[in-house]
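Input/output pair, single chain:
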Amino acid sequence: MSKKVVFLDIDGTIWDEYNRIPESTITAIHQMQARGHAVFINSGRTRSFIREKNLLDIGFDGIVSGCGTMIEYHGEEIFYHEIPRDLAIHTVETVRACGLRPILEGKRYLYFDDDEFNHEDYGKKLIAEMGEDRLRISEHWGDWRISKLSCATDNADMERCQNEMGTEYDFMIHSSTVCEMVPKGFNKGTGIAKVCELLGVDIRDSYAFGDSVNDTEMMETAGHAIVMGNGTNELKAIADYVTKSLHEDGIHHGCLKMGLI
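Output:
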């Protein structure tokens, strides 16, 4: 049997909104590994924000983070793209001039300023969760080590921001108040392609599990696209197979269907 590489989104795929992971998911991951397959997390989150013990203790073979901007394999960093300093400074100045409030995302730290976020629950949650790994943009001006950013966009001039920064970034609009800015040329799909290249695995032997529209490139790139039963209709439309929902043992069921376990 040829080696397969399996990529799993986190939110809505591995766990639910309360970070609960079905035991059947953990079992399926270990069964795939026992058969010689490699299992990767593939997340839009940068590595600094993939830190929960119950997730990492599963024992993944690797992690693709930051929309393909960083890849780890057996605990070793094998690829990383960092936004150059001058571009990072220009980006922060521009998004703020357009009324966006930035959170800069790196492999070790998240950076944001208290006065822009401490009045909302999300800002307070990030401060509590990140602890010493949350730094202030203003106190570390220009010395950020980042690969992407997220922005609060309420009361922002998004058209102006996209016009000014659209040559450098792809904008992922999640809602009327949140967007992500990812350097051009990177997404969850490029992460899959890079892993297959680095491991010498035919991309036709790659499998992706996801649930939302930000998994689109992942599904389009992988050899086999499996969408969770709780996934969006848009993603289901491009799936090779729609499995059961997360809490109906969806990953385990999909792995059985694909012959991975």
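Residues 85-97 form the longest helix (13 residues). The mean pLDDT is 96.
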